[in-house]
Amino acid sequence: PTSVLLVAILWSLLLLFRAEGFVTDLNHGRAFFQATASEVKMSLESFNDKPPRVLIVDAIDQSAASCLTEAGCVVHFASKITDTDLASQLISESQGGPFSAVVVRSANTVTKSLLEMAAEEGGKGALQVVGRAGVGLDNIDTTAAAALGVTVVNAPNGNSGAVAEHTMALLLSLARRVGEGKASLAEGRWAKAELTGTGLEGKSLGVVGVGAVGKRVIKLARAFGMLPLALEMPLAFYRE
Q1: What whole-number distance in Å separates Cα of residue 46 and Cα of residue 11?
Q2: What does UniProt give as the signal peptide span (predicted)?
Q3: Rounded to an integer, what distance in angstroms lies between the CA atom of residue 158 and that of residue 161?
């Protein structure tokens, strides 16, 4: 997906900018840059130092890994790795380290102790970037990362399109009573008259929260001829 590929470029850029010392305040450990892989590659070619090493510890789209490689990074993969093994591999020269960046999804937890080990013991190639190939950052200690100067980046819109489409799929399923129809067929009944259902066109749709997903749901709902009614609540409301 484009969003996943883009975040791979962002990780490459963060490595580049931090190596040059251009970035000092990265918004509490999170920053987002936009560039092409070729631009990053040309910039990296100006360095005489070793290329950044990136450890990917979960399955991601191959295009993202290719983007990192094209940008001049050395990419290593370690699937189904435990958190303990992850900490040791990040600083182990025999296993490709020390690594400048690590890419995780949800299988691993990047704790304070792991960050301290990888950022302090890695020497010149110490951990600088933690990339989350997804939206949530609950498995990464962002406070500890910020304190250690480790940048954390994610793909905030990585799955918003898929979630919005799934929302519409559920709406259609409910409106057309697809689940009930499937169940009746499994019972050997053809309940056509009982399960007429209804259409979406002309119906009002309430959308609470107009973020990346909410906006896409509204766009899709309009395509079905629905009337979206959006409500955006203060952030404190969601925290409660």
Answers
A1: 18
A2: 1-21
A3: 8
Mean pLDDT, the chain, rounded, equals 76
Q: Quick one: which of 68, 66, 62, 91 has its CA closest to 13?
A: 68
> Given 3-state DSSP classes, what are the helix, strand and coil percentages for the chain, each rounded to the nearest 5?
45, 15, 40
Q: What are the chain's domains?
A: 1-153 (3.40.50.720), 159-237 (3.40.50.720)
pLDDT digits (tens, 9 = 90+) for 82-100: 888 888 888 877 666 688 8
> Are 34 and 6 a contacting pair, CB within 8 Å?
yes
State phi, psi for 209 to the nearest 5 degrees: 100, 115
What's the pTM value of the predicted model, to 2 decimals? Answer: 0.63
Tokens of residue 97, six digits: 């380290």
Q: Write down the residue that tokens 């799934």 correspond to.
A: 166
Question: Which residue is associated with the tokens 């295009």?
Answer: 63
Half-sphere exposure of 160 (CA within 13 A, CB side): 19
CB 105 within 8 A of CB 155: no
